[in-house]
């Protein structure tokens, strides 16, 4: 680096295109959708910068057209998993000693490539492989991923400048060491951006990483890996190993130099990994740092002073965007009796009009859920509600997996505030509603707080400032991201750092300084300029 003081200024958020009819970006995207639909690609592992083929194959199919194969990928076996760990060890020395600005430039360049020449490729592969509509793909596979890379490089600039106090005779320096060992990044299917961020954040501060992507997102995640390589990521810094989660974790979590886990996914899987770490604790050279962002059962509370149109829009977008497959999706709502009749009518009318279908047709708001397993799980919840005397399905409820995994946006009304679908994460387009008496707003807030084990996101719709205040206070521990007069989804990097506690994770706020600080192990170097030459204290008699 020419100037060691050079740093990266705070960026602005990448703005999404809206793909209006006849716009250039719409034409480009349609072209890329067609191009990638026509080919079947092969996805190898990438270990130490090289493509590795195992012959143990899996298929990537379009969730909205499951006969259509997009790619065949190779799965890592025990040998390749160990190769990936070894490659990360080998790459560490050069990478951690590279000037941090040079490391950061890899991610700055990746951001520029994604925002520019690969923009519609990232959108197309995310749309086809994960069944997202154009806008849902654009806001995350492009904008959020660009923001993660841009903001994190800026946060590092800020963090590295922080130094402890020194005096005339004692100079103290903080050495921002990466962790001693490698980091294991395990990523979910639902956000391409999370796939890109989880291995990259620890890498930016000098760590090397073994990345296990979700098999249902391996298609878009492979493109992220290729872009990072094109941006100059040195071999072995991030090693891309698709494979069975439990199998990969079993091998990786036994390595004595495991130094950190960067996980996003379900609470069950996170708990299982934490338990394995505990079992292997004596093996490790250092305590692995464990960061995990997990499930949610996100709420919307409506106060009698709320605006009905705003509520209906917030509920529909919050619950059904990306088929409710967001950890932050609105999945339980509390509505006052006085407003219910009007909100119910509008909700049912709007929900019935929502178009469901493949991503290539831009009029579809809802597309397919990710795979057969997700489809079956969501259908089971809907069936449970259909059969229960405590609940009624007031809109949607149809499930059809003939061509793609389509579930219509579903509204369940229950009289039991602790009904199964008010408590458990469904991860599909299902919203359950409980209607409360207007004069029980405060009791309802208590109920919201105590109903589910999660603590991720939530929102209050109210014009009344006192009501907002009560909700903000009473629900302080109920959500790591709390929204006023808005849906509980779509956190933006740099604006609403994202994450929650309780069963929703360690709340280390992806894309924020808090997260980056987990991937360093600071060392303080003290130099005494005029060292003492006599051990006795001045007050002592001769
Ligand atoms: N809090 C957040 O920020 C956030 C963000 C996105 C998704 N999520 C959560 O993620 C879940 C949906 O994503 P998903 O279906 O990909 O989650 P998942 O837990 O099924 O899978 C996540 C990752 O873990 C791997 N895995 C599976 N079994 C494993 C095991 N036994 N050991 C180690 N790894 C294993 C998977 O292959 C995948 O790479 C939801 O619960 C959602 O709420 C949370
Ligand atoms: N960043 C996302 C949540 C990620 C979980 O799936 C949001 O706020 O919608």
Automatic annotation (TrEMBL):
This is L-glutamate gamma-semialdehyde dehydrogenase. The keyword Oxidoreductase applies. GO terms for biological process: L-proline catabolic process to L-glutamate. Gene3D superfamilies: Aldehyde Dehydrogenase, Chain A, domain 1 (3.40.605.10), Aldehyde Dehydrogenase, Chain A, domain 2 (3.40.309.10). Its EC number is 1.2.1.88. Pathway: Amino-acid degradation; L-proline degradation into L-glutamate; L-glutamate from L-proline: step 2/2. Signal peptide: none annotated. One of its GO terms (molecular function) is proline dehydrogenase activity. It is an enzyme of class 1 (oxidoreductase). The active site is at residue 293. Keywords: NAD, Oxidoreductase, Proline metabolism. Belongs to the aldehyde dehydrogenase family. One of its GO terms (cellular component) is cytoplasmic side of plasma membrane. Residues 59-521 form the Aldehyde dehydrogenase domain. PROSITE patterns: ALDEHYDE_DEHYDR_CYS, ALDEHYDE_DEHYDR_GLU. InterPro entries: Ald_DH/histidinol_DH, Ald_DH_C, Ald_DH_CS_CYS, Ald_DH_CS_GLU, Ald_DH_N, Aldehyde_DH_dom, P5CDH/ALDH4A1, Proline_metab_enzyme.
């Amino acid at each position: 680096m020419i100037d060691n003081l050079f740093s990266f200024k705070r960026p602005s958020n990448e703005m999404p295109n809206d793909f209006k009819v006849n716009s250039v970006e719409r034409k480009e995207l349609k072209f890329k959708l067609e191009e990638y639909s026509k080919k079947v690609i092969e996805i190898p592992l990438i270990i130490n910068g090289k493509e590795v083929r195992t012959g143990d194959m899996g298929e990537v199919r379009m969730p909205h057209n499951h006969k259509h194969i997009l790619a065949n990928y190779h799965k890592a076996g025990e040998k390749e998993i160990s190769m990936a760990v070894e490659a990360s060890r080998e790459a560490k020395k050069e990478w951690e000693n590279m000037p941090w600005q040079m490391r950061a430039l890899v991610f700055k360049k990746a951001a520029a490539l994604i925002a520019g020449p690969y923009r519609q490729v990232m959108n197309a592969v995310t749309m086809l492989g994960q069944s997202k509509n154009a806008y849902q793909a654009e806001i995350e596979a492009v904008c959020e991923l660009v923001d993660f890379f841009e903001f994190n490089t800026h946060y590092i600039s800020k963090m590295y400048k922080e130094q402890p106090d020194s005096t005339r005779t004692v100079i103290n320096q903080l050495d921002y060491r990466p962790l001693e060992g490698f980091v294991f990044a395990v990523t979910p299917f639902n956000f391409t951006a999370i796939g890109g961020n989880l291995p990259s954040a620890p890498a930016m501060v000098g760590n090397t990483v073994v990345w296990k992507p979700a098999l249902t997102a391996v298609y878009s995640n492979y493109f992220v890996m290729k872009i990072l390589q094109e941006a100059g990521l040195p071999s072995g810094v991030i090693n891309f190993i698709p494979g069975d989660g439990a199998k990969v974790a079993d091998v990786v979590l036994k390595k004595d130099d495991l130094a950190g886990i960067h996980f996003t996914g379900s609470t069950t899987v996170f708990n299982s990994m934490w338990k394995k770490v505990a079992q292997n604790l004596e093996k490790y050279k250092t305590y692995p740092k464990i960061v995990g962002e997990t499930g949610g059962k996100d709420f919307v509370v409506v106060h009698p002073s709320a605006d009905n149109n705003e509520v209906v829009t917030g509920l529909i977008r919050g619950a059904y965007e990306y088929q409710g497959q967001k950890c932050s999706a609105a999945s339980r709502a509390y509505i006052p009796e006085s407003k219910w009749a009007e909100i119910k009518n509008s909700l049912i009318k709007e929900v019935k009009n929502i178009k469901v279908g493949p991503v290539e047709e831009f009029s579809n708001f809802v597309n397919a859920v990710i795979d057969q397993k997700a489809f079956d799980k969501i259908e089971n919840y809907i069936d449970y509600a259909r059969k229960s005397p405590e609940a009624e399905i007031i809109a949607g409820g149809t499930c059809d997996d003939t061509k793609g995994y389509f579930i219509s946006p579903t509204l369940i009304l229950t009289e039991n505030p602790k009904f199964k679908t008010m408590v458990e994460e469904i991860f599909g387009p299902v919203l359950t509603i409980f209607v409360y008496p207007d004069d029980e707003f405060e009791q309802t807030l208590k109920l919201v707080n105590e109903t589910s084990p999660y603590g991720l996101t939530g929102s209050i719709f109210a014009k009344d400032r006192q009501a907002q205040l009560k909700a903000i206070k009473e629900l302080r521990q109920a959500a790591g991201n709390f929204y006023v007069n808005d849906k509980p989804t779509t956190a933006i990097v740099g604006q609403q750092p994202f994450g929650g506690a309780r069963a929703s994770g360690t709340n280390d706020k992806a894309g924020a300084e808090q997260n980056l600080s987990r991937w360093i192990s600071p060392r303080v170097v003290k130099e005494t300029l005029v060292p003492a030459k006599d051990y006795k204290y001045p007050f002592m008699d001769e």
